[in-house]
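Hi everyone, sorry if this is the wrong subforum. Our group has a chain we'd like a structural model of before ordering constructs, and none of us has done structure prediction before. Sequence below.
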Amino acid sequence: MANTGKQLRGKVAIVGCADTAVGVLPGRTPMELCVEAALSAIADAGLDKSDVDGLLTCNAMAQPYMYHAEAMAEYLQIFPRYCLSVGAGGGTTFSIVHHAASAIVTGMADVIVIAMADSLRSGLTRDQAMQVQASTGHPQFEQPYGPTVPAYYALIAQAHMAEFGTTPEQLAGIAVACRQHASLNPAAQMRDPITVDDVLSSRLIADPLHLLDCSLVSDGGSAIVLCSAERAADLRHSPVYLLGAGEGHNHEHISAAHNLTTSAAREAGERAYAMAGLGPSDMDFAQLYDCFTPTVLVELEDLGFCAKGEGGAFVDSGALAPGGALPVNTHGGLLSHCHPGNPGSMFALTESVWQLRHSAGDRQVADARCGLVHAQGGIMSSHTALILSREAA
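Answer:
Right subforum, don't worry. Here is the predicted structure as tokens:
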């Protein structure tokens, strides 16, 4: 029988969180943004940086360091006993969380800061950004044919449409729902309402994906603070507990994917649910990685919120929107809140904390007690799901 990791369930809590401003932030380096987010999250927890003995980060494209976490510790003048920089693409945030939880439970550290930031909007030239887009694919079997990242995700959209009859209007509905949430979030980069027609009439990027089917390009940083559940009980805010975590991996390059409409989000979700002892119907909200609209369709299905092939109908039902049966990306997601690259999913994590603290203002999900956050890296390659709760068990 597989080990579900229940020794982690409810043992660790998020006790501090903070975001920087997002959008276009010229003159501010990724390291400056990362440090700002970390210090703000530590203050939010009611702690001092001298309390921190663990630091986890990911590198920045616009300002890479050979040893990023160590460089940040030096900048902060903290001297952690657990220090690591992790790279797993967009899924980095959530894989880092359960690594941090394991370190706390095993006594490797007591108080861990996870901080990430990048400046993809202000810190990269157009040529550099295009080089990143064009160099993602397999160097032998994909790159020679010239696709960029949107083209790879367009393959997923085309496959879902061909297999299940999904329509461009249903893809557009995902972007509309995210913008509805963002319109309630004063921190979101894009807040003006959009319609399905707006999405479909925006510039075609990679058939069938239009500009508004694609995530933003942003600057910004975000951080959280974790500690043991016992210590969390004495701190400033109501703790947000980690109940479940799961990963799934089935390919690196899209040409090696076994299936374009089913992903390893399924395994990630199953493992997270098993650890938490909960299921999809127990979730009051979900934060799903929405670098492009078709990823949300696949994730909704693979994470058990609807049956395979029914993601489009689920979107049509209004479930994802504010007040819906499953509010998704309540901060606006990568499509409307911000997307500074690998740190993008950090903002889904801080949003989940505010939702579970019941401090999310106009976008608050009523009586939210439990939520799922999911992110993926690569081209639907590396998946991690977390289940967070206001209650430890």
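For your construct planning: The mean pLDDT is 93. The CA atoms of residues 235 and 392 lie 15 Å apart.
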